[in-house]
User: Fold this.
Amino acid sequence: MLEDAEYEVVLIDGDYAHLKRLDKEVEGLNPVARFLLPMEIDEGTRLLYHDLEYTII
Assistant:
């Protein structure tokens, strides 16, 4: 089972959003295909990753 994680959308670049992990110290950004994220995201949006799904928090 994957662990829950909190992210912030730092950059939207075409078909990808680059996410920064907020709840754990991790180096670098995590690129995620935008089709996996809620349509309403924008830079600065906070997300929760839970059960293989991203939701806005």
